[in-house]
Amino acid sequence: MVREDSVSGCGCDDDSLLSVRxxxxxxxxxxVRLAGELDLYTAGRVAAALAELLGSAHGSVVxxxxxxxxxxxxxxxxxxxxxxxxxQAGVRLVFRAVPAGLMRILAVTSLDxxxxxx
Length: 118
Hints:
By secondary structure, the protein is an alpha/beta fold. The chain has helices at 43-56, 73-89, 100-108; strands at 3-8, 17-24, 30-38, 60-71, 92-96, 116-117. Helix 1 packs parallel to helix 2 (73-89).
């Protein structure tokens, strides 16, 4: 099953668009593919999708960030909070295909030592 939701954050313009696609991965994991901008206006959609998956997750959940153009502070908070909830539930949450700019932010903030990044 592949599900896709699009959110136009503030309704201001298409620049705040975020696409969230959920589907099966290669090795039986569930993959959440994010595309666009993850900011104050769109972070709720990602938080909701990850929370919903936690209730039905078997194995790992992979968040594919290859098509993510921007992540604001609220987006980073969603990543950390989700990681914590998944760890408490014994489910592995993996962030994959992290763009170079975001990887630098994770390194500077030491979040690369907190989150599971591949």
